[in-house]
Structure formats: C-alpha cells, structure tokens
Amino acid sequence: MFLKCKSKAKKAKQMPAVEPLQEGEEVADTTGKKWRLVKRLSQSTTELIYEVSQSGSQSSSKESNQILKLGPKDGRIFNEQNFLQRAAKPASVDKWIKQNKMDFLGIPSCVGFGLHADSYRFLIFSNMGEPLQSVTDEDKLLSEKAVLQLACRILNVLQYIHSNEYVHANINAENIYIKQGEKSKVFLAGYYHAFRYCPAGQHVQYREASRTPHEGAIEFISLDTHKGAGPSRRSDLQSLGYCMLCWHTGTLPWSGLANPDQVATQKQRYMDNVPALLSYCFGKKSVSSAFQTYLTAVMALQYSELPDYSALQAGLSAALLQLGGSLEQPITF
C-alpha cells in the first residue's frame, strides 16, 4: 500500500516565493559571522532551504555544515524567529533536559539569524539530519514501532514548547528531521505557524474566525485551526495523531480532498467517533491499541485543558516496549 496522505498536501494559502540566492553567495548574521551558501536543498512557496558553511571554516565535512532557512523579511519566518528567541533559548532547553533527566530534546538549535539585501530574513540551524518527508515521499508505510519512536520524541518536544506558552500548529513530515546515529535524534522544526496560546500564563479564549482559517498543511491541522480559532495544546496533540495514522496506514478519511472546508467536515465527523476513524485507516488490519488509547485521549480534550503528557507518553512507551523497541534504538524505515 502507498501513502495517499502526504505532508505536501495542499496548503490553504499560497504566498509568493522569494527569489532564490545563488549558491556561493555570502550572508552575514547579526554578530557579523559570514555564511556561504553551499547548496540549495529545497524551495517552497514561502521559504528556501540551503546547506551553508561558515566562511573561513577549515572543515570540509558535510556533517559540520549548517542549514539556512531563507524567507521574505516580513513573512512567516519572522514569527519563527520570535518563537526561537522567546521560547527556545539553548539555556532553557538545556535546563529542561536536566530537570527532566532526558538524554535529548529535539528543539532545533538556531546558531544565527539576520537580514540580507533588505528583503530577506534568514535563520541558521545546526545540522538536523534528513527530513522525514524524504522517507514518506518514497511511499513507504512506517512500522508501528517506528511511528511510536517518532511520536514519543515529538511528544517530548510538544510538552516543552507548551510549557513555554507556545504551540507548534503545523506538525507534519516536512517539519520533522531525523539525525541517525547510535540513537536516532528526532527534531521538530518549522515554527512558522507557532502560536502563543498562553501569554503571561493566561490561556486565550476560544473564538472561531479570530484568525485565518485552514492555516498549515490541510491534511494534518486540527479542527480548531480549520475554524480559525487560535490553536491550543490539544490542537498539536490531535495533529500528531493524524500524522501517526498517515505514516503507519497510508491514508486518512479526507486524503485527496482539495477543499479545506470538506476536510474540516470530515474531521468533525470523526472527532467523536475514534473507532470509526481507526476502522477507516486500518481497514482489515488489526487496529493498534496504542493508537486507539492515544487518539481517544486527545480527541476528548477540552480547548484549554492541560493534557496528561505523562499518561500519553507512558501509553506510547509501553506499546513500544511490547513491540521490542525503545528510544535507545535507532529508527529504521
């Protein structure tokens, strides 16, 4: 079976692409460090991704190169920069890792940012490995074990950003990176749509049409986002559930629908009927009890409710253990 659901699903709102910069060109960040564009890796309607190296660096290893994300000066990339400076400072991430006795947390490390030619804004990240999208583009279904390994790592990141007043609001394979090694490091990147749902500790009120509806990858965004309400913690957890189903079963009830209102109608229909959603996706195959437990919990969350991250994590981890897997093992596709 192949993947009918893909992260490169229709985006509701297309923004004009920025004019690409030439490979070999240099940009200077706010500290004066210069970075040379080595290779253009990808281009979308809103951003360009380059492999870059620090000018004057002696290392020729590709592994030591960084990633540069380039976007229009006043575009979504500005929102991502704000999130990184406010909620993802390296000292805050390190403190969280120590407090929670973790070995790793997949928050991208931003090592530089700046403006270029008065019309571009750029962010520079440490190497995060390969995008999960490159795996799903090959129409591969992921094993339940691989999906649970990914979900556990992403859930850790979500708990961290949620505790820092933000939600991601656009979880999909394009925004997940995997750095293989002795252990697989899973990064959740792409904070263009990050939303401060709890400024100064005060949760925003649920108001439909208070924001542009349908923002993000249509296939995976939450019903809250479809309706133009500010995304909340439940929105991220529900999006992760849709991704898990897609990666493992290859389909969702709304796969192939181009109209975002029709997608939202389907999501509404299945919100209160998780068994029907699972039955559709798994077909004649045995339904995963871990998926059922996770989805039942996150679909029942109220808009401003604090999720029980420990219970969600424990359920996924226990299922992973039953399959003979662990977070210590590398993820295999």
What is the succession of H and E elements? EEEEHHEEEHHEEEEHHHHHH
Helix/strand structural class: alpha+beta
Low-confidence stretches: 9-16
CATH class category name of the largest domain: Mainly Alpha
Percentage of helical residues?
A: 25-40%
Q: Quickly count the domains.
A: 2
Biggest sheet strand order reads: 1-2-3-4-6-5
By CATH, the topology of the largest domain is: Transferase(Phosphotransferase), domain 1
Quantity of strands, as a count? 11
C-alpha geometry: globular
Organism: Mola mola
GO molecular function: ATP binding; protein kinase activity
Protein name: Protein kinase domain-containing protein
InterPro entries: CK1_Ser-Thr_kinase (IPR050235), Kinase-like_dom_sf (IPR011009), Prot_kinase_dom (IPR000719)
Write structural notes for this entry:
The chain is an alpha+beta fold. The protein has two domains: 26-125, Phosphorylase Kinase, domain 1 (2-Layer Sandwich), CATH 3.30.200.20; 130-322, Orthogonal Bundle (Transferase(Phosphotransferase), domain 1), CATH 1.10.510.10. 34% of the residues lie in helices and 16% in strands. It is built from ten helices and eleven strands. The protein has helices spanning 77-87, 90-99, 133-136, 144-163, 223-226, 233-249, 260-271, 274-282, 289-299, 309-322, and strands spanning 26-28, 34-43, 48-54, 66-72, 110-116, 120-125, 130-131, 166-167, 176-179, 185-188, 195-196. Strands 1-2-3-4-6-5 form a six-stranded antiparallel sheet, with helices on one face. Strands 7-9-10 form a three-stranded antiparallel sheet. Strands 8-11 form a two-stranded antiparallel ribbon. Helix 6 (233-249) runs antiparallel to helix 9. The longest helix is centred in the middle third of the chain and has 20 residues, at 144-163. The chain starts with 25 loop residues before the first strand and ends in an 11-residue tail after the last helix. Residues 9-16 have low confidence and may be disordered.
